[in-house]
Specification:
- 34% of the residues lie in helices and 26% in strands.
- With 235 residues, the chain is of the alpha/beta class.
- The chain has 2 domains: 103 residues, no CATH class; 108 residues, Immunoglobulin-like (Sandwich), CATH 2.60.40.
- A 5-stranded mixed beta sheet has the order 2-8-7-4-5, with no helix packed on it. A 3-stranded mixed beta sheet has the order 1-3-6, with no helix packed on it.
- Strand 4 and strand 5 form a beta hairpin.
- Helix 3 packs across helix 4 and helix 4 packs antiparallel against helix 5.
- The protein is extended, with a radius of gyration of 25 Å.
């Protein structure tokens, strides 16, 4: 059996997420598990929570721990590795740190990640706007009206040319700064391209979606369209 066709219960039984984070999977199984958790939100949540736990552990364990006063110095071999944690002088403070980390994950991080997944899975009515004519001179101003912190959709027609192997769409903010860049396969330009702008607490103002074609011979980006729109934030 491979991770690609296992269900979530089988993944838990094999402790796939833990082995993935600890680097105990072979390259082949690692690739198969990645294909699995990209389509399994529960496994993806386990990986994200575990990765956050590792990062918090690194930060907390990097802080100096006061050594207890001992009657006799305890020599720890340089190659003791993880076994050094089992010595009383080291085990107690490390255990205390891990308990704090685990408590933080269970009370704060894990519930927040579950809430994020629930929001993504919930049906939504998203604000949307067509930028099909926004690249034309003299076209009226396109307005997108949405609530603060909510995603929205942009629909754009990209002029397809045979010399371009792919395209990129880049969103520039009111100050001209780039917020993100999105690769677009060439075959998708045959129809109107829907682009989901992720949720962010961005201010109201004029934004510009800049589309560039990637030249198949030189690999350089050539601008093929600029699509300005004005973002309105509703209360």
């Amino acid at each position: 059996m491979t991770f690609a066709d296992m269900d979530h219960n089988e993944s838990i039984r094999l402790m796939a997420a833990e082995k993935y984070l600890l680097g105990e999977l072979t390259p082949e199984l690692r690739e198969q598990f990645e294909e699995h958790f990209f389509g399994c939100q529960e496994c993806a949540l386990d990986v994200r929570a575990g990765a956050a736990l590792v990062e918090h552990s690194k930060v907390l364990l990097s802080e100096p721990v006061a050594e207890p006063v001992l009657r006799r110095p305890v020599a720890v071999p340089a190659r003791a590795g993880w076994l050094a944690w089992l010595r009383p002088a080291y085990f107690a403070p490390v255990l205390a740190v891990l308990l704090v980390v685990v408590g933080y994950q269970n009370l704060v991080t894990y519930p927040r990640l579950k809430g994020e997944v629930a929001v993504v899975n919930r049906p939504q009515i998203l604000a949307s706007a067509s930028l099909i004519n926004a690249n034309t001179r003299g076209a009226g101003k396109t307005i997108v009206s949405t609530r603060k912190g909510e995603p929205f959709l942009l629909f754009v027609d990209i002029p397809a040319e045979a010399r371009f192997s792919s395209y990129t769409a880049e969103l520039d903010g009111p100050g001209g700064n780039s917020e993100w860049s999105l690769p677009i396969p060439a075959e998708t330009t045959k129809d109107t391209v829907p682009i989901r702008v992720p949720a962010d607490h961005r201010p109201a103002g004029v934004y510009t979606l800049v589309v560039r074609g990637v030249d198949s011979s030189s690999g350089k980006g050539v601008e093929v369209g600029r699509y300005p729109f004005e973002l309105h934030i509703r209360n």
